[in-house]
Design brief:
Shape: elongated
Helix content: 40-55%
Largest sheet: none
Distance between the termini: 85 Å
Strand content: under 5%
Number of strands: 0
Order of helices and strands: HHH
Length: about 100
Amino acid sequence: MQVLRLCQQTGLVKLGHVALAGTKVQANASKHKAMSYGRMKQEIARLEEEVDQLLTKAEVVDSAEDERYGVGNRGDKLPEELRFRHQRLESPGVPAAQ
């Protein structure tokens, strides 16, 4: 309410009818969760290190998958010889349907 009165005094608003909502928003304003500026800097450094580790791990996995499946292949596609039904039936090791 003080903000509205201040805005009225400075000429920013013309007050008439004012409606206030009673919406409740869940929040965690615990002093145990609040961080000082120094703590935030530490947390940023920790998170940046964690992201770097995750990116390094992803690069290792990507390289291994490129070696296994070939560059640009995901490894979840059927081999060309198994793509179509008639080709699957003709694949070696698959008994012909009778």
